[in-house]
Amino acid sequence: MTHLNSLDTPALVIDVDAMERNLQRAARYAHEHGLRLRPHTKTHKIPALGRRQIELGAAGLSVAKTTEAEVMLASGTPDLLIAYPVLGEAKLARLVRLASQAPVTVALDDAGVAEAISAAATAAGVEIGILAEVDLGLHRMGVGPGPQLLALIEAVRALPGLRWRGVTFYPGHIKDHAVESQPALERLRGQVPEMVAALARAGAEPEIVSGGSTPLLWDSHTIPGVNEIRPGTYIFNDRNTLLGGACGRADCAATMLCTVVSVQGGRMMIDGGSKTFSSDRSSATEDALYGEIEGDTGARFHKMNEEHGYVDLSQAARTYRTGDRVRVLMNHVCTAVNLHERVWAVRGDEVLEAWTVAGRGKLQ
Amino acid sequence: MTHLNSLDTPALVIDVDAMERNLQRAARYAHEHGLRLRPHTKTHKIPALGRRQIELGAAGLSVAKTTEAEVMLASGTPDLLIAYPVLGEAKLARLVRLASQAPVTVALDDAGVAEAISAAATAAGVEIGILAEVDLGLHRMGVGPGPQLLALIEAVRALPGLRWRGVTFYPGHIKDHAVESQPALERLRGQVPEMVAALARAGAEPEIVSGGSTPLLWDSHTIPGVNEIRPGTYIFNDRNTLLGGACGRADCAATMLCTVVSVQGGRMMIDGGSKTFSSDRSSATEDALYGEIEGDTGARFHKMNEEHGYVDLSQAARTYRTGDRVRVLMNHVCTAVNLHERVWAVRGDEVLEAWTVAGRGKLQ
């Protein structure tokens, strides 16, 4: 048996039992409510975990980039959504190669982007699915849900090589600490069916209405019209998910194993900083901490440099010595995973295996 | 000729002429003031650039981790500082292997860490240089500059397999927006010579007194007693360096080439977010921007997700269309470089070559 303590630090460790429970719970929820589950694999970036999501009934997988899609083909997914517009020669070449290997759908909000994809698909003799991206409040991507959306859909439907499959939105503005979440959720419960009805009246009833994030996961069935969800973080969860109320502490499957490298005058330094955790602040609280030291909420991880995590011990529950190891619940697991070549699957103190993060660093 | 526009985005591009000027200026400064220059390679993580720093007169190179040191051996550096305590079996094994290939020095602040290194060095029949780390105001690593420092040095000197070489500090608290910089710099100008004098009186005169960061680079000669500097960022510079006043705009050698992937209602999205830039805020200003769109300071890059850079165009100097390309001056180049497998050396619009970031992601 390989013991956790034999791992060199910093090391990102995954509790496989908690992960499996998370996967099964979401699969059950989606099944019970008749929702297509299409997990976003940006959280784990590991084809074997994508395969497990498919085994448990996921209708397909989501990725952000064509390069991530190439990696995720190894999961054997029956349907692949690139939830990001695909622009430019190199990406279009990858896209049509992908489409010759698996059914691929792209989310976009611009008729010009659709035209370029249509031209590439037609030249390559493949078909690309399209979801029209609509903005329901996040103000990131997406056209407005009225005439703009209909115009985009009509443009897509008129183009050869494309198959219009429906609409997609990302409800990232809900359960974000900057917005009161309940009114926004209530608004969404009106916006989606209204949008779907208007499209149906115009002869453009969407087959897929794709929404759903991890913070909103368990509320997905309360939004009439949504029939597909794309949560990512739920596989591992993180401090944001916990503080946002979408999971319990036992559902946090990912922690960072760190070593205390210095203890001086009421503070300690751990060997993980922005190069190990990412410097993402919490999106669920204003506390400005970078994570939580497992078993010691009084030890405040309040600052970081690339290789240093600053932990204020003035309210700590215990004492620490140089060389001690701690496990840290990170704010945002997706950006942390992206920094690691591999993560470690563990059960209790036993290290089961290393998983290569094959989709790490796929920027293009 | 390969044109910049043929690069797939996002792409981190380095203006080689600006970089070379930055390297030469720092080399000249160090030479003029009799300072050993030991650049921290965490900024570039590229052995060929380390070699160029050595060619221009650097006395050695600095790294943060033993795994980075392994990569940087290829630079042919005559002296390698691991500016971070080395703890644990795996790292000690790497350390003594390194020491059999090149002179290696470790910075530490704990006699226990020194003892473990001594035992490993003795067993392997190698010698490890040691710098005692002192805290002169950052409150990160380091013992106090009084009796604690002397005790640490005496412990190191008594251990076999170690060669005590001097003291090191990191003045990261100076030119940080959270602290008024002038009083802290004035204090440092007293602290260092006082510390050196006290050590000399106790029979422990340090051969090396190592300080120096990029924000403080050009003030290094005004701190009596400092004889070595370890700037990292100066090779490329970034928005932090610019806003902190330690470089001019023409000295910013690194920019992120991004594509506009969406323009909707007074905002645009670029294809770089926290996975491309890192989510580091500026350390030199409170403006909460994530970077500066080259040539358009009115376009405010104010928010990011992993793959999305949110740019508010309400004050923009020009209009943008989906598919346009922009270059972005990033807040913090070190954490950005760490996210890229390779960066592109450019002169004007010409791409000269790709440089593999061999030291990227070396966490342990």
What does this structure look like?
The structure is a homodimer of 364-residue chains. Chain A is α/β, with parallel strands linked by helices and 364 residues long. Chain A has 2 domains: 2-10 and 246-356, D-serine dehydratase-like domain (Lyase, Ornithine Decarboxylase, Chain A, domain 1, Beta Barrel), CATH 2.40.37; 17-236, TIM Barrel (Alpha-Beta Barrel), CATH 3.20.20.10. The first copy, chain A, contains 10 helices and 18 strands. Chain A has helices spanning 16-32, 47-55, 66-72, 89-99, 111-124, 147-157, 181-201, 239-243, 274-277, 333-337; strands spanning 2-3, 11-15, 36-37, 61-63, 80-82, 104-108, 128-133, 162-168, 208-211, 228-229, 254-264, 267-270, 291-293, 300-304, 309-312, 325-330, 342-347, 350-356. In chain A, strands 1, 2, 11, 12, 13, 14, 15, 16, 17 and 18 form a 10-stranded mixed β-sheet that branches. Chain A has an 8-stranded parallel β-sheet with strand order 3-10-9-8-7-6-5-4. In chain A, helix 3 packs parallel to helix 4 (89-99) and helix 4 (89-99) packs across helix 5. The first copy, chain A, starts with a strand and ends in an 8-residue tail after the last strand. The model of chain A has no long low-confidence stretch (mean pLDDT 96). Chains A and B meet through strand 11 and helix 9 of A and strand 11 and helix 9 of B.
